[in-house]
Amino acid sequence: MTHPNILLVTADQWPGALFGVAGRTDIDTPSFDQLARNGIRFVNAFSECPICIPARRSMMTGTAPREHGDREFQPSLTRPDLPHLAEVLRDAGYQTAAVGKLHVYPSRDRIGFEETVLYEEGRPQLGGPDDWELWLTDRGQAGLGHAHGMSNNGYEVRTWHLDEESHPTVWLARQACRTIQRRDPTRPMFLHLSFNFPHPPIVPLRDYLDAYRDRAIDPPVSGDWTEDMPHVLQRVRASWPEMTEDQIVAMRRAFYAQCTLIDHQFRLVVGTLREQLMLDDTIILFTSDHGEMLGDHGLYAKRLMLGMSASVPMFLMGVKDCLRTRPGTIDMRLAAIRDIMPTLLDLAGVPVPESCTGRSLVSGPPRETLYCEALAGAMAMRMVTDGRHKLIWYPAGNRLQLFDCVDDPQELHDLSAAAELAEVRDRLTARLIEELYGEDLDWVRDGALLGFDPPEVVTPDDRGLHGQRGIHFPQPPAGDPSKVVGAP
To answer: What whole-number distance in Å separates Cα of residue 232 and Cα of residue 378?
Structure first.
């Protein structure tokens, strides 16, 4: 059997609803919109753990956090003893290559990729420097990659401080094109292109920020429940300084500019596939590891079970004339990050390992419910959805939220106390309890959610300015790789 080529493109921290094809008029995403129209757009796609490392472990192993062992963010956790996507494809005869962020430990663990060109956002304590910083050094810009002064988890804004060629989005796209050009023509290729943006720092190229200067930007939304937030959400809100309306609009413009740059650079990769006569024989899947709140409900970043954080884009274009990925298909099934591995293997004609708990999105029945989870202890959040309704449980304070995902996609109205939805709430609660494990079981008794008393909400110490990087020449000393920096 002749296997197709596979291109898996991921962005970091891009919400599933933030695309023109999803109805947004305040952002330009022409290339990804067309990719979605060229195949299947899964409109109910979620990150089962909307945090960078756990989500990527799910993506590369086809498993949920329960199986791969991380629902928090453990930077020093080594790879799980599970078959990885690149390993399975390599063993099936594929040339496997990764360009960009893998977010594994140690960072040079290739997890089955024969070749890696790494950009790891300035984490030398995990075994750097990475290839982008070495490239900067070779061209006389040693250590200056993060000299823009913007934080990797903050919402300050400025334009990119070096030349366009050195911007990580541009650099990664060109490295991907070069990898395609240098491929082994005797084998099918699996290429994973992993962009680190639009994740902060928010440092768009000036031309792209200028393109949004006079653009009307949708303001953040605020639900009727925000005056009495669950404990976890109060802590998240306290983790970033309050921003004015003008600051939020400026931040959103700059964030969208980073998205559009990714969209345009993706075009170069598609163009390279076309000119190398590979495009018709290549499966392309685009997704993100999680979303970004962008000020909605007064909240920022990821980790949350709310839509802008937990929903992700998932656009799948098959090889030319593939009957299972018909152009213009909108698929309403519940999809998850862990479904990527079995879906790509299914389309490639490669057996799916029994370890995968994800499902192929192009064969078999859809799931009835999807369970998602994030963090532990007082920050724990658990969620279950049937596609129409979403139930979120916050164990600290034993709070529930219930949203109608169809009639209220922006989650403005918490329906957890609505008498007419008691059956829905009880049914989803019972389903959520079935999924709980570990410490969560201590917060349940006799089939009922008990939770626990929340601690006091305090403004967290931000001595490190949300993970601010410095000058990386000489390289910063290796520290404790398990230390999480820049997180609330």
So the answer is: 7
